[in-house]
Amino acid sequence: MELKAEEEEVGGVQPVSIQAFASSSTLHGLAHIFSYERLSLKRALWALCFLGSLAVLLCVCTERVQYYFHYHHVTKLDEVAASQLTFPAVTLCNLNEFRFSQVSKNDLYHAGELLALLNNRYEIPDTQMADEKQLEILQDKANFRSFKPKPFNMREFYDRAGHDIRDMLLSCHFRGEICSAEDFKVVSGSPGAQQ
Question: Fold for domain 100-183?
Fold first, then answer.
């Protein structure tokens, strides 16, 4: 008696049969293919559908990988020569939509979540990602304990805290002549931008 018990303990857990595995699997059709029933037309059809689907999946995946490694690309270049060129359209993009130095405590209270500086509980979400000096300033501005919020206007906020071409344009020359911020006009979808 004791020898059998010891043999079972040494052997450990017995592997699960394919039918038991298939019946508990979430893979569609597997439970129908490897069922405890005898071989039937239903099982054969399920096996055929499963293998067909697997073949289609493998073909599509193989084709997509081969397509990726061909590195297809399209380059289209139209060159137009002009003797007289009008002042060109210039696009200046800044990933920082607002100047952090211009964001006030009231702005942070009303638009902190929109600016991704605060979460919905008025807390700083990722302190490890911020610069130490900016983090101190942000923590000071985000202290709303005795703060009484004032009315907030998004257009005024865009005008005040948005970027200004006079600050960003350091030098500009076109056809040998100096150009300035007055030669540019703001075209933007922002509510405070001039059209």
Answer: acid-sensing ion channel 1 fold (1.10.3590)
- pLDDT greater than 90 at residue 71: no
The CA-atom distances, in angstroms, between 13 and each of 7, 10, 24 are 12, 9, 18
Identify whether the C-beta of residue 33 lies closer than 8 Å to the C-beta of residue 46.
Answer: yes
DSSP state of 162: B
Distance CA 45, CA 33 (A): 9
Whole-structure pTM over 0.70, yes or no? Answer: no
pLDDT at 178: 92
Distance CA 126, CA 169 (A): 32
Q: Report the candidate in 179, 111, 181 with the shortest Cα–Cα distance to residue 142.
A: 111
What ranges in 12-103 are assigned the alpha helix state H?
18-24, 30-33, 41-69
**Which tokens go with 167?**
């600050």
**Rounded Cα–Cα distance for residues 111 and 113 (Å):** 6
Is the distance from CB of 18 to CB of 33 less than 8 angstroms? no
191: its two tokens: 């509510």
In the chain, where the domains are located: 13-69, 100-183
